[in-house]
Amino acid sequence: MKDKVTAEFAHERILTENSEAAHVLFDKSCFGEKLKNGRVQLSLVEALYLFDRGSIDIVDGRGKPVDFDKFLKMARKVEKNIWIRYCVYRDLRDRGFIVKTALKFGADFRVYGRGVKPGEDHAKWIVYAVHEGDTMTWYDFSAKNRVAHSTKKRLLLGIVDEETDVTYYEVKWLKP
User: Fold this and answer.
1) Is residue 74 located within the same domain as residue 90?
2) Is 129 found in the same domain as 151?
3) Which pLDDT score is estimated for 2?
4) Which range of residues forms the domain containing residue 100?
5) Are 76 and 45 a contacting pair, CB within 8 Å?
6) Is the model's pTM score more than 0.70?
7) Is residue 176 part of a domain?
């Protein structure tokens, strides 16, 4: 991307300026959601990804620029698990998938097959980002699997290790 987009950290959300470059992020690469005023609202993980890639600059509520570490610290106040979620998000995006939030499914992300944009087809997976040291009960695992099954998506667990590498486990229902 030629032009950097300026985005503001505004009360737990990231709002871009109303610019052609911001619209390209939304239209071509499926980042964020376009608002009626022409700005694009980014999730925290989307903003971290774009900031890390040098596509956007972040300013605080007073218009002062923040660096990556400061932004990450601000984001952690809103969402304590942001780094684990970011590692999974970054890995999936770098592999060419479109990744959107999945709060209404009770998951971290919904992931579309390569070449598929939201609105053209449904997401293929719902993803839960988990640190390798975390534990999960069978009840929690079953609940995640039921959510995926009831929404006609596959369950994908993204396990992040200490080196921030991600290993994926796909869970499917089988009829014997």
Assistant:
1) no
2) yes
3) 56
4) 82-171
5) no
6) yes
7) no
Do the beta carbons of residue 107 and residue 141 sit within 8 Å?
Answer: no
Give the pLDDT confidence score for residue 1 in this predicted structure: 45
What are 121-162's pLDDT values in tens digits? Answer: 889 999 999 999 999 899 998 888 888 888 889 999 999 999
Last residue within a domain, chosen from 45, 78, 111? 78
Q: Which residues are tagged catalytic?
A: 112, 122, 153
The first and second tokens of residue 35, run together, are: 């608002």
Whether the Cβ atoms of residue 159 and residue 130 lie closer than 8 Å to each other: yes
Query: Is the same domain home to 146 and 117?
Result: yes
Helix (H) or strand (E) holding 7, with range, is strand 5-10
In Å, what is the CA distance from 137 to each residue of 55, 142, 167?
A: 39, 9, 19
Spans in the chain with pLDDT lower than 70? 1-2
pLDDT value of position 78: 92
**C-beta contacts of 153-157 below 8 A and 24+ residues apart:** 153/105, 153/110, 153/122, 153/123, 153/124, 153/125, 153/126, 154/124, 154/125, 154/126, 155/125, 155/126, 155/128, 156/111, 156/125, 156/126, 156/127, 156/128, 157/127, 157/128, 157/130
Q: Bridge-partner residues for 66, per DSSP? A: 58
